[in-house]
Amino acid sequence: MSGFLSRATGFFGGMGGFLLRRAVAAVVTLFAISVIIYAVFYVAPGDVAQITCGPRCSPEQVRQVAGQLKLDDPVYVRYWDFLQGIVAGRDYSTGTGTEHCSAPCLGLSYQSDQQVTQLILHKLPVTGSLALGAMVLWLILGVGTGVLSAWRRGRLSERVLTGVTLAGTATPVFVIGLVLMIVVCGQLQWLPFPQYVNFTDDPTQWAWNLLLPWLSLALIEAAKYARLTRASMLETLAEDHVRTFRAYGVGERSIIGRHALKGALAPVIALTANDFGTMFGGAVLSETLFGLPGIGRELVHAVNVVDLPVVVGLVLVTGFFVVLANAVADVLYAVADRRVVLT
Predict the structure, then answer these.
(1) What are the b/e assignments for 130-168, b being 16+ CB within 10 Å?
(2) Would you say the C-alpha torsion 176, 120, 307, 317 has a positive or negative sign?
(3) pLDDT digit string, tens, across residues 190-228
(4) Can you tell me the distance from the alpha carbon of 121 to that of 102, in angstroms, rounded to the nearest whole number?
(5) What is the pTM for the complete model shown?
C-alpha cells in the first residue's frame, strides 16, 4: 500500500511540474505570437493610421486614430499599451466621449464601431460548433478506417479503403460540400440547407442544420487521419513485442485494440490538436460555402473592407486556439504515457 501511495505521489508531483512547464511554454509562445503580429501589422512600413481607420476615413478621423494608437511614441511603448489592453483592458476616445474596452481588449473596429472582442465572441460559437462536430466525425471515420485498413492489410478491402482515402485527400472541401448540398439538400431533401441555429435555442435543430457542414469537413479530414492511423499501426504491428504476443497466442483483435491502436494515438493526438486549433481561422471555405456567420467568414470580410483591428484580433484568437489545443494535446500525451511527464 505504501509503495502504491509513493508511486502515486511521485506521478502526480511530476504531473504538477509537467503542467507548470507546459503552461509557461504556452504563455511564452503566446507572447511571441503577439509580438510578431503587432510587428507585422502595426510596425510595418506604411500609413498605419490610414490602414487601421480604413479607406473611407476623413483626415480628421485618421488623426484621431493616430492619437489613439500613439504613433508618436516609441514602438515598445505602443506595444506595451497594446499588450496591456489585452491583459487589463483600456479606454478609447470616441470623439464625443470615452469608451471602456474590458480585457481581453483586442481593439476597436473603425468600420463597424464595435469592440473587436465583442464581435469575435458573437462569431465564436458558430466556428466552435463547426470545428467540434467535424472533429468528432473525422476522428470516428478516420481512425476507424485506418484501423480497419491495418487489420485487413493485403486484402481487397484494404485496397478499396486506400483508394477512397486517396480520393478524399485530393478532393477540395468546397467540391464535396457543393455536391452534398445539391444531392442531399436539393434533390433528395434529406437535410435542410445549412443555417446556424443557437444550441441554447434548439439543440436538435442546431445539430441537424450543421450535419452537412460537419460531414463535408469530416470526409476531407478523415482521409488524412485514416492514412496516418494505418501507417502508425502497421509500424507498431511490425515491432518485436507484437510478434511476441502473437507467439504466445494472443488474438489479433486484442493486439489491434490494446497495443497497435495505443501506439497510433500519439500522432493522431498531435494532428487533431493542430487541425482543431487552425479550424478557428481556417474554416473560410466551409463557412462561406454554407453561409455560416463564423470567424473565418468574418476574417474574409475584414480583409475586404481593410478592417485592420478585426484582422489582428482574429489572427491573435486563431493563434491562441492553436497554442491551447497543443497544450491540451501535451496533457493527453502525459495521461496516455507517463514517461512524457519526465521529459
Answers:
(1) bbebbbebbbebbbebbbbbbbeeeeeebeebbebbeeb
(2) negative
(3) 888 888 888 888 899 999 999 999 988 888 888 888 888
(4) 13
(5) 0.81
State pLDDT tens for residues 296-341: 888 888 888 888 888 999 999 988 988 888 888 887 777 766 555 5
DSSP labels, 273-293: HHHHHHHHHH-HHHHHHHT--
pLDDT band at 5 (very low <50, low <70, confident <90, very high): very low
Domain boundaries, the chain: 2-101, 121-338
DSSP 8-class letter at 70: T
Which sign does the torsion angle of CA 320, 321, 323, 324 carry? positive
Q: 297: Cβ–Cβ under 8 A, 6 or more apart, which residues?
A: 123, 284, 287, 288
CATH of domain 121-338: 1.10.3720.10
From the centroid of its chain, how far is CA 38? 21
Backbone angles phi, psi at 93, to 5 degrees: -85, 130
CA distance 12 to 57: 57
